[in-house]
């Protein structure tokens, strides 16, 4: 709808284009129409220009807000990158110190093994010398007995020729001493084998307990990560009962009066039950973390932000470094267990003691 002359005049005066009211008196009608058309075109152009300026101002403000948000996000990403770099440097320092400690520990273990080997050789030499000395002593004792028997028999015959002295008792003594020596050697060999089996069993039990302890520590770390990263409602809804490590002991996992894990007792043995519970807990926590990571990946992927990708790659590198540290620590613990079990003295069992007593 076109504006009339009065509306144009009031609009010009209200906008301050002219202080006095517009007057077209004295102009021909044709000139009035041309002038009014020009005024209407100028007003429309002015209104369009004002509307465009308003839109440009709003768009400029929106772009300014977007620029501020982008700068803030870039600043946060830089701070996260700096913190991650500091963590990587700390882990690198810890890794170097752990490598140095591992090398020192390996050197000390090597010296300990050499000393243990020398001690074992000396022990074997002492045992061999003891056996030889005992054999020589037994032979000397037998010769002495034979000599005493012959002298006694000759003396008695010279004194009382009619009395005959039987000497099979001395022969029986010699036969019993030789059989006792063979039985003693068999007992020593059996005791050595039994002691080696006991030592191996203790080492295997200790390794199994250490492996379960490592699994429990990994499960605890996963549980803490789930509590920190996953929403509180989800973590409380899906979290399983997380017990303490009071049950991770050799006497509880391998009771003395209970047989080892076989096909018949693999579902009822405490060690197998504990291992099954730990594996299930780790699987549940890994599944929760995988679901949480997938959801975050989808959310960050829609926004097109590359800072999340950098953060994820750095976290993966940190996890690899921590895995290497844990593997180094497990190898060091395994070496300590083997060396500690190798230093234990050999013990005699009750069965062999009873056999020795019965033979004697």
TrEMBL record:
It comes from the Eukaryota. InterPro entries: Afadin/alpha-actinin-bd. Residues 328-360 are annotated as: Disordered. Residues 53-129 form a coiled coil. Keywords: Coiled coil. It holds the Pfam family ADIP. Residues 337-353 have a biased composition (Basic and acidic residues). Belongs to the ADIP family. This is Uncharacterized protein. It comes from Malassezia psittaci.
């Amino acid at each position: 709808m076109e504006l009339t002359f009065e509306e144009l005049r009031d609009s010009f005066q209200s906008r301050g284009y002219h202080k006095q009211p517009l007057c077209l008196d004295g102009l021909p009608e044709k000139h009035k129409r041309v002038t009014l058309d020009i005024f209407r075109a100028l007003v429309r152009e002015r209104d369009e220009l004002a509307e465009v300026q308003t839109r440009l101002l709003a768009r400029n403000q929106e772009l300014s807000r977007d620029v501020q948000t982008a700068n803030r996000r870039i600043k946060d990403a830089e701070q996260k990158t700096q913190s991650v770099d500091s963590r990587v440097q700390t882990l690198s320092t810890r890794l170097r110190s752990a490598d140095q400690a591992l090398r020192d520990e390996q050197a000390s273990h090597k010296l300990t093994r050499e000393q243990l080997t020398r001690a074992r050789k000396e022990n074997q030499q002492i045992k061999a010398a003891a056996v030889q000395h005992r054999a020589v002593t037994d032979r000397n004792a037998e010769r002495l007995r034979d000599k005493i028997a012959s002298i006694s028999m000759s003396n008695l015959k010279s004194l009382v020729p009619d009395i005959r002295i039987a000497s099979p008792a001395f022969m029986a003594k010699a036969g019993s001493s030789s059989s006792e020596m063979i039985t003693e050697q068999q007992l020593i060999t059996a005791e050595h084998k039994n002691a080696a089996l006991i030592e191996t069993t203790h080492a295997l039990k200790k390794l199994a307990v250490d492996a379960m302890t490592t699994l429990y520590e990994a499960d605890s770390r996963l549980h803490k990560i789930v509590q920190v990263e996953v929403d509180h409602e989800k973590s409380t809804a899906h979290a399983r009962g997380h017990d303490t490590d009071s049950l991770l002991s050799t006497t509880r996992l391998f009771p003395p009066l209970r047989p080892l894990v076989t096909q018949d007792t693999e579902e009822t043995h405490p060690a197998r039950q504990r291992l099954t519970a730990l594996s299930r807990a780790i699987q549940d926590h890994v599944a929760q973390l995988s679901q949480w990571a997938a959801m975050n990946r989808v959310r960050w992927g829609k926004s097109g932000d590359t800072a999340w990708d950098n953060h994820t790659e750095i976290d993966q590198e940190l996890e690899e470094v921590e895995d290497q540290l844990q593997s180094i620590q497990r190898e060091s613990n395994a070496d300590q267990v083997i060396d500690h079990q190798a230093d234990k003295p050999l013990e005699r069992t009750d069965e062999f003691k009873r056999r020795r007593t019965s033979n004697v």
